[in-house]
Specification:
This protein has about 400 residues and is of the alpha+beta class. About 30% of the residues lie in helices and about 25% in strands. The strands form three sheets. Strands 10, 11, 12, 13, 14, 15, 16, 17 and 18 form a nine-stranded antiparallel beta sheet that branches.
Length: about 400
């Protein structure tokens, strides 16, 4: 089932169609950027209530695992790109063989889909990564821990995100319980060293088929319960040399892997100051949401430019610091409506830039984000987190009462 596109003035020159697999908030915000470029993003969505399906006039309903639905979404599109990485590689290879411009191509995207393939490729390239090994039985974990020590990190090779599919057993007994349960359920695993971590960083870049690259400032990502809660752009107290090292690493990897579009290179900064690659996302990413309001070219517009092989836009920051705070669903949705919460936030913080995703409120679910720009990282972060907490809980963390 597909929603027919809105009829346009046929006397106007046709603009290229970009199709995006997945109807989540990333597709919704990509559609916002497409509108400014005279386009309407085509979305392959699972449900009419999906965030992007609510706003796009060109929606194909179907599953990302259904080749027929993928073909329908790609028909007539200048590029087929992604809101998530979970499309079967063999389907993408079939589309490429049929002449579809898949961006990023499947031979690149596989390294964002398969963590073991990614680790092996980076090891082959000589890039900085944690020690790792494939897990086919708990004996593999025991052998790895004997060499590298406990605790270790176990990861599902495919499908994990926002802390899902990641475990940190402290000993053999804990690892045994996890490995046996996951392998029995058909989940493939790898094991890595637990990095002595100072913080997590993200180097967001974009690359076009022409080979042009662009990099935003390296950001710090603050994780809570395995989920990104706050992004600080640029990363505080990161030397120019380390920032340049991270940007150059991400740009080189995008070229080496043949990436087309936006790419987030998630990094560990160790207590010794070393940078290690954690994971990739070959699409717009949570760590780039700050750029919507804090950079001359936001990640969603840049992604469209890249997949269409347009010249890439400037990534210069618009303020000394921008902080993005995710609006996460509270344990219980507040009685106050989201509309009223938004009203009070705008009255108290008129500079806060609010982005809501059209999603129902569930515990810990990403339902929106807030960007605040300013001069002092600590002050801007405090304000952004306070605003996000208000939108989640209808409670001001400083006790302020909007009715007094």
């Amino acid at each position: 089932m597909a929603r027919e596109p809105v009829t346009t003035d046929r006397s106007q020159p046709a603009m290229p169609i970009v199709a995006m697999v997945g109807g989540g908030q990333l597709a919704r915000m990509t559609h916002q950027a497409a509108i400014a470029l005279g386009q309407c993003l085509r979305v392959l969505a699972a449900d009419p209530g999906d965030p992007a399906a609510q706003v796009s006039a060109d929606v194909v309903f179907g599953s990302h695992t259904d080749l027929a639905a993928l073909r329908k979404a790609a028909q007539g599109a200048a590029a087929l790109t992604f809101d998530h990485e979970h499309v079967p590689t063999e389907h993408l290879e079939t589309l490429v063989a049929e002449g579809v411009n898949v961006a990023p191509p499947p031979e690149a995207l596989v390294f964002a889909q398969d963590k073991l393939a990614m680790r092996r490729k980076l090891d082959e390239l000589g890039d900085p990564i944690p020690a790792f090994a494939e897990v086919t039985s708990v004996t593999d974990v025991e052998r790895f821990a004997a060499e590298h020590g406990w605790p270790v990190v176990l990861k599902s090779i495919r499908g994990g995100y926002d802390g899902r599919g990641v475990w940190m057993p402290d000993d053999f007994d804990a690892a045994t319980a996890i490995v046996e349960e996951q392998l029995a359920g058909g989940v493939e695993l790898l094991v890595e060293t637990k990095v002595p971590l100072r913080r997590e960083l993200s180097a967001m870049v974009a690359r076009s088929p022409f080979g042009q690259g662009a990099a935003w400032p390296v950001v710090e990502t603050v994780q809570r319960n395995g989920q990104c809660a706050v992004v600080i752009a640029p990363a505080p107290e990161l030397s120019e040399e380390k920032a340049a090292e991270a940007q150059e690493l991400a740009l080189r990897l995008a070229a080496d892997l043949g990436v087309v579009g936006a790419m987030a290179c998630e990094l560990f900064e160790t207590v010794d100051g070393e940078l290690l690659i954690n994971e990739f996302a070959m699409r717009p990413h949570n760590s780039g949401h700050w750029s919507m309001d804090g950079a001359r070219t936001g990640q969603f517009e840049q992604h469209l430019r890249a997949v269409l092989d347009y010249p890439l836009g400037e990534t210069t920051p618009l303020a000394l610091v921008t902080v993005m705070a995710n609006i996460l669903g509270a344990p219980a949705a507040p009685k106050m409506s989201m509309d009223e919460r938004l009203h009070h936030l705008m009255a108290r913080m008129p500079d806060a830039k609010v982005h809501l995703y059209g999603k129902g409120e569930r515990p810990a679910r990403k339902i929106g984000h807030i960007n605040i720009l300013g001069d002092d990282p600590a002050t801007v972060r405090e304000r952004a987190e306070r605003a996000a907490h208000w939108m989640s809980h209808a409670e001001w963390t400083d006790g302020w009462n909007p009715h007094e």
